[in-house]
Amino acid sequence: MNEYDVIVIGGGSAGIAAAVECYKNGCEKVIILERDKELGGILLQCIHNGFGLHMFQEELSGPAYAQRWIEELGKYEIAYKVNTMVTHVNVDAHIAEDAAKAKSEADKIVEYVNQAEGYVRIRGKAVILAMGCRERTRGAIGIPGYRPSGIWSAGTAQRYLNMEGYMVGKRIFILGSGDIGLIMARRMTLEGARVLGVAELMPYSNGLSRNIKQCLEDFDIPLYLSHTVTKILGKDRVSGIELSEVDDNMQPIPGTEIYFEADTLLLSVGLIPENNLSEEAGVILHPKTGGAVVDEAKQTNIPGIFACGNVLHVHDLVDFVSKEGQEAGRNAARYLRGELKSEKGFVTKAGSGIGYVMPQKVNADNMEETVEFMFRVSQPCQNVSVSVYRGDTCIKKVNKRVLLPAEMEKVKLDKTLLQSAEGDLEIRIESRGVIG
Amino acid sequence: MKEDKINEKKANEKKTNQKKELICIVCPIGCHIEAELDPEGNILSLSGNSCGRGAVYAKAELTNPVRVLTSTVKITDGLYRRLPVITSQAIPKDRIFDVMKEINKVQVCAPVKINDIVIGDVCGLGVDIISSRSMESVNP
Amino acid sequence: MFNELSLGAQTGADMYDIIIIGAGITGCFIAREMSRYQCKIAVVDAENDVANGATMANSAIVHAGYDPEEGSLKARFNVRGSRMYEEICRELGTEYIRTSAYVAACSAEEVEKLEELYQNAVRRGIPVAYVSTEEARKEEPALSDHVVKVMELPTTAIIYPWETATALMEEAVINGCDLFLANKVTSIIKDNGGYQVKTNRQMFVGKLVINAAGVYADQIYQMAAGKKIFTIKARKGEYYVLDRSDNPLVKRVIYPIPSASGKGVLAVPTTHGNVLLGPNSVFTDDKEGNDTTREGLDYVRNQLMKTLRVFPANKVIRSFAGLRASGEQHDFIIEESDVCEGFFNVACIESPGLASAPAIAEYVVNELILPKYPWSVKESFKRREPLLRVNKMTPEEQNELVRMNPAYGRIVCRCEQVTEAEIVEAIRRPVGATTVKGVKKRVRPGMGRCQGGFCEPLVVEILARELGITPQEVLLDSEKSLLLTGETKEVGGEQG
Q1: Threshold 0.90, pTM exceeds
Q2: Which of B106, B109, C23, C343 would bridge with C337, disulfide CB 3.0–4.6 Å?
């Protein structure tokens, strides 16, 4: 069995950044396993620009951003395989004789398959999970109606459109005003389709205002806030959709139905971290993020298994994904050097106004000079303070003008500040002027 | 914060000043900016922006809105059937569909290097359509 | 007896001994049985694939037979069919899992009814036993606190209905049967000791007609008889599908106490690790009306809270609906017509239709057809090659396959781990897939969590290549269900 220092599962933005950082921090045998035809992940089909503002101070298209990182990867002796599907990840049970000792040193066995090699098992000291996410489906949100052709998640339609060169329909309705839906509204219009409208369940859009402007307003595509698709018509192919207004509880209001003669319904209704492999390996997931519960080193409950990127929590900016990949890579190297042994630490909590906080725990001894906490607010707020508490002590307060659930936020604390008080760490939204 | 759909008010037939509204997209605050323009379309006043960047954006957007356009062109011998392309600079917003027409006529052949010019000086705008990525040939 | 030659020459029709109308589970079982004999068989179906009606959308349970009314055909054929399935699935190489079942009573009144069902089972020789609620809850932790008494039926099993039907039809076809899909019957004329069956595509002539046309069996019979003899109403049943899990919600089929409208809302494990929750029971006038409804799905969800303690909404990956063929007599109609000699009705095959199907076919062939039309048996009966389940093989076996055919090393469907070679096989073999849904029914891409979000473009590419068509011509299911409407850059390019 081939052996590696680090096995990276997923060759998208997170995986590539993680692999590069592993190598730069001293891991010699690093390999990336990627299921698609080439490295790059979802960025390859995100042909619009807006990527790289933080990382490269440029606004690149998705493929160009991916190419920068792939070129960076090419400078190092990092192995990778494409057209390769990972089927299993497990902790090597054979080594686990002494449970405590084995838990921290046990190798990981990764099984993959490709045409050239068949079904192969490899051994790695550490594994970095970077599998990204999948899209929420019509079936999962339970839109009643027939099951005709003409219904896709926006990302699948995007792949057909941008990679294969096919139109999926002529009269499109889009459910979900997240960025993927907005981007597709523009793309379909530019390629000759008629986009009849975009509906959003919430009373506010989930997408960047720049996309509302440049994808909807520019093309006079109406946005129906507080609306949802309540029925799909058409037995063989979509022939229409029924749109209803929703109340404060997001329930359809009878009598508000309007109909659109669409032949296509695209869904942009959320992303779900793709953690099937992680769960099989015994990684514990967080119910709010759908990704692994991790500490500040991005390490999961299984020593030596790290997670980063969309598989850990769904991101909005690829720059943050790359950064998170780098953190996971750097810490995988620290793990291999035996620097992540301690398990003492404290947990983090999402306080009032906060949807979730990542990481979910912090290792007091392992942590580096600063720890960056990522979070999302649960509803839009203006002119508030983001307050960080340890126990009852407020250790940091940052004033913010505007916070949106659609935009991931971060707050950085240095080690001394974090250690200045005791107890669980909680991030909460407070009105300005409240003294903790 | 409600993000209402903003409809540009139709220009007045008579020669009077117009009022226009737009949402600034420079940062997440998304200030609602109100502008007054004279009959020729010159900006007389701007209000609602919290910073100077907003004023710059609003001026540009109201007098000469531009957009970076991204699309794909047909490509043969490549790993995929389409090659992503991008305008080398922003183009006038009202020329988007003219440029799309030109983009749709093109067919390139792999290999292609990132930033290769696919259409030079498209529609005489002084802007090129360039490749967003390198794509190798599958038929060496 | 029957001037085949002249009739054929006049009408340009295809001449058969038997025409089976309907390629659902019943039609497929009958076709396979009759293909053992020296007769020419045609199966016609209006749909674009076999098993596209009720056989497509049901609970997939081989019920033990405790529930149908005493003395009914349902009781007779369910009990017999339930005993036949294991052997048949072994012969075909298709899935059959004896999950066992609990019938759960939740009130004193229901306990009485449970005792009746218990006695039914005893009388019919169906293995049955009461189990304590403690043991039941240990075995099935999802059972709710409302459950007060539980009866177990260990011979209850589940199958994979599309696989079973397709496998049956495959054997029929490799033994000489002709299959005509996308052929909707438009008229049936009795003539010269036979029947002219006209479809939207061609004309068939057959000595015998077997009407296994599901919800349309009444209209098909009416075409032959010249008047409406019985009426079939479509009765919709809606389901939720839960994601595959190593720890499924239930291990056994969980039945509530049945009511006048049917068996009630069930929790059913599937042969591939999913769980089905449903169905409801609502009559609809539209015989194509298999859409799911808000009211129907809500009803399923609410009713489940009787027998189950939780409805795992976040594990739902899909919902669907099927239409049962319900007759007024609440029983199967399986007989030769008394006004149309040689016309056999196998109609009103609603629950327990799936479980009864092999026994129905056995009866139709051995007791209705052969005594009157004694075709001799063929010398040999060819068996189908079962589909390989690659993700169930050992690594050594898998690698042997890859060495032989690298396409076994390319996983196309990540959620269900299906290789390209399996998809190609599903397309190339007899009664092969010709649509995205056909591939999905046979080898599962699109059945998983992502519902085809990742794999559909890849499946479309493979179908186009194998069928020699463009991706734009690939269908989801019916001929009107195109996926892609065209290429990008078409408009601009053409205008030059």
Answers
A1: yes
A2: C343
